[in-house]
Design brief:
The chain has about 375 residues and is mainly beta. Among the domains are: about 160 residues, no CATH class; about 70 residues, no CATH class. About 5% of the residues lie in helices and about 40% in strands. Strands 2, 5, 6, 9, 10, 11, 14, 17, 18, 20, 21 and 23 form a twelve-stranded mixed beta sheet that branches. Strands 1, 3, 4, 7, 8 and 22 form a six-stranded mixed beta sheet that branches. Strand 12 and strand 13 form a beta hairpin.
Length: about 375
């Protein structure tokens, strides 16, 4: 995901002067285009603007543009505006026999267009596999092949979801309406939560130097040993795209820029912004690379019983509260009531919030439909 336009400052050991290399197009607020023209599935295009590295404000979205997909013979399909910087179509009637481009008109009157690109058909994912290294954790891999030897350039994205639970189950809740405790309803449960995250690393592979168009165990993500992600059940949905050679080179350069800069022997920044151009001002950079392709996807689950690694809960402060102090302790925001105790009669056992409220570790209490 492209988020910022970077200014590079080079420091040489032993020197006190800062060198600011001249940039071909100094400034910021350039258009960033993310997404693919997708065959056989929904197309999503996200538009945003670059900001200076020193700017700590939130991402600047491009919200009122008109976005279309156009074929080389003049067919045009409008994308719907979600008004959050995302433009989409549930299904576009495009074919692999034509070339397509993205055409954008922004609210400030500027016109942008990508090059026309061929449609690449992505082969199915053979499998998403995983291996456990007791000292390191779990590594997730992608496996695929193309018997026609025409794919050769691949990119992957993923969405991971995992269930997590706190150390204790809170069966009671302080009801401010009646000013006392009552049992929690199913809608008020805070014991099971689900977190979701997306891939941040640029995941690429090329088979051009191989005898066959085969990708075997391409590492996608490593889950550290004893991670909360496999405290109960972990799910990963992997999407696979086939790229053109130009698209692969763009993503490779972007990966080098964003992940390997920092030392004097690392790759130097590249000036190829992609295959999208500002028609209104050809000198204005546009960041992004449009590919037209079909997609392949596959989901797998990893259960804690498959890895059986320990998960250490934080130390939890607990207390047994007598009936005359229930309101004092549980009407506040530090302790949660768990259950009644036999001694003292009417007493309640409680713990600090973070020990019984899974929401404090992120996520939502609403179970995604694909999770077991």
């Amino acid at each position: 995901m492209i988020k910022r336009f970077f200014y590079i400052v080079v420091l040489f050991a032993g020197c006190k002067d800062i060198y600011n290399p001249p940039l071909k197009n100094p400034g910021y607020n350039y258009l960033v285009v993310e997404g693919n023209i997708v065959v056989g599935d929904s197309t999503f295009i996200r538009l945003s603007r670059t900001i200076a590295v020193s700017d700590t404000s939130r991402r600047q979205l491009e919200t009122n543009a008109a976005v279309t997909v156009e074929s080389e013979d003049g067919e045009s399909y409008n994308l719907q505006n979600r008004f959050d910087g995302v433009y989409y179509s549930p299904l576009l009637p495009i074919t692999s026999t034509k070339e397509y481009r993205l055409h954008i008109f922004t609210a400030d009157g500027k016109e942008y267009a990508s090059d026309y690109v061929p449609v690449k058909l992505t082969p199915p994912i053979d499998s998403i596999s995983w291996k456990l290294d007791p000292g390191k954790g779990v590594t997730i891999y992608a496996n695929t092949h193309d018997p026609t030897n025409t794919s050769q350039y691949y990119r992957w994205e993923y969405v991971e979801t995992w269930e997590h639970r706190p150390k204790y189950l809170s069966e009671l809740i302080w009801d401010r309406t009646v000013q006392y405790l009552r049992g929690r309803t199913p809608e008020e449960q805070i014991y099971r939560c689900w977190n979701t995250d997306t891939s941040g690393e640029i995941l690429l592979a090329s088979t051009t130097g191989l005898a066959a168009d085969v990708v075997h165990e391409k590492p996608l993500i490593q889950i550290p040993y004893a991670s909360e992600k496999i405290d109960k059940v972990y799910s990963i949905l992997v999407k696979q795209y086939t790229l053109t050679k130009g698209g692969y080179e763009f993503w490779t350069n972007l990966k080098n820029n964003t992940e390997q800069l920092g030392g004097i022997f690392d790759p130097q920044p590249f000036a190829d912004y992609g295959n999208i151009h500002c028609i209104s001002n050809l000198a204005e950079p546009v960041l992004g690379y449009i590919t037209a392709c079909s997609t392949a996807e596959q989901r797998i689950y990893v259960y804690w019983t498959d890895v059986t690694w320990p998960y250490s809960f934080p130390t939890c402060g607990d207390t047994t509260v007598t009936p005359d102090h229930v309101a004092e302790i549980f009407s506040g925001f530090d302790y949660l009531p768990l259950h009644y105790v036999l001694s003292p009669p009417g007493g309640v056992f409680g713990v600090l919030n973070e020990c019984a409220d899974c929401r404090l570790h992120g996520g939502t209490t609403v179970k995604p439909p694909y999770m077991p």
